Amino acid sequence: MIVINMKNQTLTNKTSARALSPAKLIIAVAVATSLSTSFAYAKTSAAIEDNEIITKATQYSEVNKGTESNINDAWDFANLYDNDQGDYFKLSGRLQLDSAWVDSEQGDYNDTAWRRFRFGFKGKTGEFTYALEADINLNDSLDDAYNRLTDANVAWSLDKNTELKFLKQSTGFTLDGKTSSKKLLTPQRNNLTNNLWFTSEYFTGVSVKSKFTDDWSYKTGIFSSDGSDEISISDASYFAMFSTAKKLAKNSLWDKGEVSFDYIYNDTHEEGNTRDFSQVISTSSKFKQNDWGLLSDISWGKGDLGQSDLFGVVVMPTYQQSEKIQWVARYTYLSSSEDNGVRLGRYDSKVVDEHGVSIVDGERGDKYQEVYAGVNWFVNDHKLKFQAGLQYAKMDDNANDGGAYDGWSFTVAMRSYW
To answer: Residue 167 — left, alpha, or beta (φ > 0 → left; ψ -120 to 50 → alpha)?
Structure first.
């Protein structure tokens, strides 16, 4: 039995709006910089003679590249040590900010808050890699800021393709569930993942990932469903995961393609920190052709402990306008076999449930649909990006017990990691 407990207090989300002047300043400066740079360049280009256009454009490009290089170099602060053998020691973490506005038939909601802050380190020595990272709530006072450990593990490279990992680690499945929040193309994960995936994400266990061939890869593991904030396998039960993915050869329909399959067996337990599904099956895909992309997810969960079976589909096309600008659209459909089997998304649920927490059935329905359109601005790839998205969502509630929803939401987000 392994039990390490650093904190027993449960933290709850605050529902009141917070005035975060540093957050608003970050967004304001970023937008103002972008607009002023574009305006200045346009004005300069209009004023110069025809025979100077190429020269000026070249000079502007060189200045722009220099500025971009300086921004990218700022992330070098995290690199504390490395050597010729590939060993290293780095700081790790992420900082994420959300501003959300919801306007629905059931009510309104708006808030600006730090979405995530994590800080720690990771390193490599010989065949071993290790990581330790804590999740910190910047919206609370310093005394209550610590939430939990996220990554707290050691991995052993058995060969160049195979890795064995122990202790607390990410357990990803479904399209967005196995995509780090650092690299999501939308501010929040889709609602299929929110319903079926185990949103606590980090569980104590052991996993192995490797390749069958150059095109086939897999990851499998067994984990405790214990809900401890630290490393623990003493309470609740367990779940097992198997995922496999295949890269597809280039053809006339796509330049890059990949399909994957996830299977979860969950020994559901009332004290478990998982969703109440005894089995989850998910098949997802990613395709890219020139600047266009298409991602999809089709998933099903077998309900238990009062949760009904659930089926869902996500389709997400993307368009890469330039190196810095990406447009994203998404359609999500969810349906449960019985009443109150579907949850609303993160911010929509705060309108239906006046307490802003997911502890009542007031945010449940039986059929959900969502349409999303948004844009991503990559300042330094995913290491620093700004996202904005408009969403329309509708929930049907056959039981008529408070889960119906029909509304719009708009989210502006900053995402950064190192």
So the answer is: left
